[in-house]
Structure formats: structure tokens, C-alpha cells
Amino acid sequence: MRVARAGAVELVIFDCDGVLVDSEAATCGLCAQAAREAGMMVSDEDSIETFSGMALPLIRRMIEQKTGTTLAPDWAAMMQARFVAAMEKGAKPVTGVYAMLDAVRAMGLPMRVGTNSSMEEMAVKFAATNLGPYFGDRVHSAVDVGAPKPRPDIYLTAARQEGVAPQACVVLEDSLPGAQAALAAGMTCVMLVEPGKTPPELLGVLRIEHLSEFPAVLERLNGQG
User: Fold this and answer.
1) Do the beta carbons of residue 112 and residue 135 sit within 8 Å?
2) Which are the contacts of 192, defined by CB distance < 8 A and separation ≥ 6?
3) Distance of alpha carbon 21 from alpha carbon 26, whole angstroms
4) DSSP state of 125
5) Going by DSSP bridges, is the β-strand pair 111-115/92-93 parallel, antiparallel, or unpaired?
6) Measured between alpha carbons, how far is 192 from 175 in angstroms, rounded to an integer?
7) Which of 33, 203, 209, 211 has the most CB atoms around it within 10 Å of its CB?
8) What per-residue confidence (pLDDT) applies to 198?
9) Tell me: the pLDDT tens digits for 175-222?
10) Torsion sign (Cα): 112, 189, 194, 214
11) With bands split at pLDDT 50, 70 and 90, how would you rate the model's confidence at 225?
């Protein structure tokens, strides 16, 4: 494991949905549709606020608790198949993502992805947005780790694979469960907040409204700005 300088950034870890790929409206809308099918009334308009950043096991538990029903054993697999089908046509890059990633790469910082999405979903999303070349095989799914956010396992796995101490990692997130996971991992968390929206109150979280702001945050954390 590399020994980091005090305050130095040695690894940048990105969430995917809402940070790299603009897919949350589609996937959360599918979750709302599935919830309504089970008897839980959630509108498409409220779907992002309700389901953003949540892994399917947690969404399943919420629906079952709200409705008093038991979903089918293959419910999560069915939802993942719906996500993959939707992302084949509906995945788009978040505005400014390519310029931001180019700037981070130019700083010489390694980059990884830690996501609650399955690897099958990630393959479709990255193929649709051409983001794959930025990360190669440095993509980690909480489905494989077996511990979705807000647990920190996915981010700790990414740091361990890179050989970097958690305190030398910066995570870019956009959801409350994801930010909680980053903080629980002992990492610096930067949260991408939609302009005009009130972000969740979390101590120690830096906030930006546009991806173009992120490279400057990394420079400041490295004492370069």
C-alpha cells in the first residue's frame, strides 16, 4: 500500500449514476413503477427523492414494509433486467463528464468506480456513453461485494485494489447513501448537488453544483490551489 502524504489525494473514486451517467431518472422511475405494481404509491416525479442511491435489496425491503407484501424471489433479477434494457437506449453522460475526467487524468490521479449497479448494467451504461476507456477494469459493483451503500465495503474494496489508504481517497457522490458510505470508509467525500436543491446535512462533505468544479476541489485538497 502506498503511504500518502498528509492531505494528499492518491485515488479518486466515482459513483456512477448521477455522477458519470445520467440514468437515475430512468432507473428510479422503473423502481416507482414496480412499487406501484406492489401497491406502494410513488409517483415518477417523487421517484428520485425516494430511491436515489438505494440498492435493490433496500428498495425491496422498503416496498415490502410499506405494502405488507412479499415480492417474488427473483424480483431483484427482474429489476436488473429492466434496468439493462432501459440503459441500452436511455443512458446519457452527465453534462461535463468527459472534460472533468480528462482534467483528473491530466493530474495523474488514478480513477475507479464504486457503484450499487450490477456489472451487467455498468457494461451497458459505459458502452452507451463511451466512458469505458477511462476506467478499464477498475469498476467495482456492490452486487459482487455483497454489501451495498450506505455500507462502506465497495469504496474500501476500490482503495484496497489500488493499494491506497482510505484517507488518501476522494469520492464523488450525489446521493445520501453514497455519501454515508464514503464517510464510513474514512474517505473525503465531495457531493454533486443539483443547483437549487437542498443537499442532505452531512458533516465533512464538500459540495459542488457542476462537474467542472471538481478538478479545482482536488487541486485544493492537494494543496495546489
Assistant:
1) yes
2) 18, 19, 172, 173, 174, 208, 209, 211, 214
3) 11
4) H
5) unpaired
6) 8
7) 211
8) 66
9) 899 999 999 999 999 999 988 776 667 778 999 999 999 999 999 999
10) negative
11) low
Residues in the chain: 225
Q: 165 by DSSP, 3-state: which?
A: coil
What is the model's pTM?
0.80
Q: Which amino acid is at 62?
A: M
CB under 8 Å to 12, separation ≥6 — which residues?
104, 109, 110, 111, 112, 169, 170, 171, 172, 218
Q: What is the pLDDT of residue 7?
A: 54
* pLDDT per residue as tens digits for the range 107-117: 999 999 999 98
- List the end-to-end C-alpha distance of the chain, in Å, as a whole number: 27
- Distance (Å, whole) CA 49 – CA 212: 24
Is pLDDT of 124 > 60? yes
C-alpha cell at 93: 453522460
- 139 alpha-carbon distance from chain centroid: 11
Q: In sequence order, what are the residues at sequence separation of 6 or more whose Cβ sits closer than 8 angstroms to the Cβ of residue 30?
A: 79, 82, 83, 86
Q: Would you say residue 6 has pLDDT above 50?
A: no
